[in-house]
Amino acid sequence: MTFAIFLLFALMAVFSAVMVITRTNAMHSVLYLAFTVLSVAGVFFTLQAEYLGAVQILVYGGGIVVLYIFVIIIVNLDEVVAERRKLVPKIFIFAWPSLLALQVGTVVFLNRPAARPGPEGGLEFRALAEMLFTSYALPFEIAAVLLLAVLIGAVFVARRRLSRGPD
Amino acid sequence: MFAWIPLFPLLGALANGLLGIKFFSRKAVQAVGVGSVALSFLASAASFVALLRGSEDVLVARLFSWIPPSLVPLADGGTAAFAVDLAFRYDSLAAVMTLVVTGVGLLIHVYSVGYMAHDRSFARFFAYLNLFTFAMLVLVLGANLAVLFIGWEGVGLCSYLLIGFWFSKDAAAAAGKKAFLTNRVGDFGFILGIGVLLFVLGTIDLGSINRLAGEGALTKGAATAAALLLFIGATGKSAQIPLYTWLPDAMEGPTPVSALIHAATMVTAGVYMVARLHALFTLSGLALDVIALVGAGTAVYAATMALVQFDIKRVLAYSTISQIGYMFLGLGSGAYAAGVFHLMTHAFFKALLFLAAGSVIHALSGEQDMRKMGGLRSRVPTTYRVFLVGALAISGVPGLSGFFSKDEILASAFASGPTVAWALGVLGAGMTAFYIFRLIFLTFFGPERMDEAARLRCHESPPVMTVPLRILAFLSAFGGFVGLPHLLGGGAWFGKFLESSTGRHAGHLAAGTEALLMALSAGVGLAGIYGAYVVYVRKRGAPAFRLKERFGALHRLVFRKYFVDEFYDGILVGGILRLGRLAGGFDLKVIDGLVDGAAALTRRLSKISIFFDGRVVDGAVNGVGAVHRHASRLLRRVQTGYVYNYALAVVFGLVIIMALVVTVF
Amino acid sequence: MPILSLVTFFPLAGAVLLLALPRGRGKAVKLTANIVTGLEFAATLLLLRGFDPGTAEMQFVERAPWIKSAGIQYLLGLDGISLLLVLLTSLLTFLATLSSWKAVAHRLKEYYVFLLLLEVGMIGVFVSLDLILFYVFWEIMLVPMYFLIGIWGGERKLYAAIKFFLYTLFGSVMMLIGILVVRGHYGTFDWTAMTGAGTFLPAALQGWVFLAFALGFAIKVPMFPFHTWLPDAHVEAPTAGSVILAGVLLKMGTYGFVRFSLPLFPEASRKFAPLMVGLALTAIVYGALVSLMQKDMKKLVAYSSVSHMGFVILGLFAFTPLAVKGAVLQMINHGISTGALFLIVGVLYERRHTRLIADFGGLSSRMPVTAAVFLVMAMSSIGLPGLNGFIGEFMILMGVFPVNWVWTAVAGLGIVLGAGYMLWLYQRVMFGRLESPANASLADLSAREFATFFPLIVLAFWIGIFPKPFLAVIDKPVEKIVRIIHPETAAAAVGSGPAEVR
Amino acid sequence: MVPIDAVFALGIALFVLGLFGVLFRKNLVVMLMSLELVLNGLNVILAGLGFHLRSPRGSIFAIFVILMAVAEAAVGFALILSYFRQKKTYDIDKLNELKG
Fold it and tell me: C472–B184: do the CB atoms touch at under 8 Å?
């Protein structure tokens, strides 16, 4: 049963991902991206990562995707029609990522860890929180600082150009 | 006591060089310059007296450890601690040398006060001159080969600086460089010689080398190798075949310099060095023969060139080369004391000749071409008289200093040297007399050939120049009596005095033979003078012109100095320069080409496409290879500057890494 | 007191201080930089106070765990060899800073910051005893040098900077692989533990690791045929960059050989000695030949460095104590004389904005003090007895002779050629007629410029006349290294008591 | 019960689709979106492994990845905005400053 739901979400995710990268209109891409993100959140739920799923919806769906929409509205440009890659034969663009996927797949499938027995019915939030704030306290703090830096940096980069006035 | 001798010129050089150029008046400069050498001369004299009175034959003053000991393996499988002390050694040989250097040096310093009076760089000149005196004294006092080498190179440096003293003259600057470089070629041998001695003996201390060589601590082969290598150094410094070409060019320097460095002292350093290591050289008969033959050969060879030169200083320069050849002939015959004796008398009369020539040049406002002189006898009488004394001395006229020393050399060559060398020596003696009197006749006799302006300005030199000339003339005339041979009732005192440092000369001749040889050498000298008289005075140079026409090619050959300079410049120097250009091209084309090719991918990243294109194309055109071009053309396309292409590169890198991971795990 | 850390990171503090200064205050920036490098030099001099020349062991050792999981330590220490190089580094950096007072006009602050960072890297290389730490400093130093060349360099600065960077990076990557292999054998990155272990890598492996290290070092030295980055980097670098490049950076390669290759891979060192010596001899003659034909003063001096560094390698791989000591001393000598020569070229360049020899001539009459300084340094470079160059070259030549006289002979050839290019350069620049009107009004050395040369001149004479203090410091470490390479000869020397003095 | 292989397959699929997007598209914004896809693919694998091994670590790492995605998006947008203000385009083909 769970697997069926997983498959459903997975197919939705893949489909909308394909749409994301193939739409010529950026706004359409964004919408499909939102779909993908939500589907992946669904996948998370089927994998009993409820907290992660929640974060995915809140942060990705509510934050990042909305941000994309804003940006597209602000710059407000249509997709350039000609999709043209310079110089590099297209074959490489297919070949290398595919090769990479193949390799990753080989590694991952060949090195599958044995499943650890455990209670069905989801991981406890408590365990996650405890681990996050004890073993991973330092990375957590660093991540916080990173976010702060990004905040300042982004504001700075975007603002300084503005202050130069319209050019 | 004797360790003070070199100190004064050093202080003088420092004072004049560092302060004098800016702050000293002319008077102060000359007081410091001349005074320091005078003090040094006094110290030498005092040391000499002390040596005569004292019971010690050898005094050693160890100043401090220069290069502290380090282990080196030796030829016999052992190890030795190689250490060099900055130490001075004073014995009879050093005593003679210091007296000559400081004595003649002092006179030349005094002379320079007058000669250089109008030069702008007065202080610099005296600083160099003092520095030279210092270096020369270090050379003759050094207790080991390394300290000797300090002086050896030091005099070379000063020679370089003084030849190029008028550095804005291109010829002077080039001549200085040539002198230094030629000497360097010799030093190459010298250093290897030191290496051999260190390797087989484990020491480079002069006293130890002589002692060990005397004890037979080294094989004949090793001795020959060391001796010949050191002799290469000597040929450079003393301007012998094949490294003599720098000396005539060195005449670009001021005349006092030519007198001091290129006649009296520095160029005889090779002679001194061989005499200093007499025990080593004695061990190797081959080396001695080589030295004797090179010496005799040079003596004649240089004399032939002196016969045809017109530049008054160049004649003297070739004469110097020739005379040093005699000294080496003496050394090569095993008569070390005789060689040193000639070194001393030569210092007197050649310094005299140079300074007198300088006086002539001074009188004619810088004219050096003898074809524009003539008839100067009455215009510069003092100069003429002293010049005549010097000429007679060098010609070997009996009674003057040159006679005694040259005769002693020829006698020893006859007794124990190769006979060919002796014969050449006699031939050279005649030529010597001829060319020096040719010079006198051309300069002081005959019609006045200078132009009107020069004739009017022509004047005798001031006393500050003529007094040293007179003193040198006195020494040239009578300096030989310190070595008056037994045959003439003397005690050969000079040779005896030197015995403690250069050993006793083995070869002895019967009194009759000796007398015969003496008569022969005197006769040859007089014949040479007469020949010159006939050619240049009685026939007014006519025979010379006829000879010149008759043997045009030969004359041209000799006049152009056997084209040796051209050979050296064209073949050797030119060859080296060509090699350098080749190497530079190799660097640029091949190595860089390879590097460029290999690094093409990464290089392109660096956005230097314009230059690089040129380089790639050039490289290809120049035959680095078409592969190179194709590879780079392919790779160039990768570097588009577009972000996604770089992203693709990243993916590609990931693929590679993953491939590694897949294969490894 | 962790004096080595202090010495190493003091310039870093200076750099931070500089960053804090406001941008417009050029003079304050210059002053601060000069004071910092001056203090740094004084601080390195302090090392002399506690230094004991009587031991071959590392001194002032500081040890702290750094990356525990990988067994990497923060391990500093110094012996006589590194001491001299540290002193040379701090002195040359100080002089380079002083020499840039007027030469650098734009981006002052960054310039001095990079200079100081460079100093951190260089000193770090000379004092670190953990291989990874060494590697880190080795790489750190690349970055500021890259920028110094790339930003303040000449026309082809980018090309030169990239070439420099790639060449040396390539070399150091090989070295890193070598380091990891070494660690595989010893289980530690600790140099003192490795040399104290008494075992070495298996012979076959040693060869490969030696080559990996050697490549890294050889590129830095630079040995023939890896030398072509040097002329470009030198020509394009600003004066201070050239001084440091020639004076210190090249020494890092030879230092690497002395510190790591010889004691850690003695068998391989012996095995590859003919190769190394062959390359060194090639470099000596080749560098000199190429120097002869250069038209650009800086290039000439750069190629002469190739030749001189060949001497150092030659001395190191002769393995006799005399030659190795000579080689170590020659590193210092080369830093002094070539550093000074680059400073002189810088002085001329500042005045005329050209480095072509043909643009000069007859300067002696306008710039007598410069001419005198130039002469002293040219002579020092040529190896005139009484100046520093001679001691090193002489010791090397004499120390090499017993091993193979042909080596000495070939190297001697280099000395002859060395005099050739240097004197020819001197003749063309300083002698002759003053023909170009642009040269007629050149000013002689200013007091500041003279101050940059003065310590170098003093050192040149000092080492030339009384080298004992310098040689005494390196005596024991060098003998220890030679003992590792040639246990049998050292044993013989010890067995027969003090060597026979004749 | 979800088999881990399926999770891997989904993750890799999203990852590669994202890569294609980055490589093919020339619209900067879409390129950034594709990067999000890549990160999502990664997150799926992380979550799957966490589930598979009964460990909260999978989620924790995924949270950090999301965090990074946020940061990347923020900086990316800032750059796009300032770039756009200069060039009036977000066509990546015009952005070849790296070529110098």
Answer: no
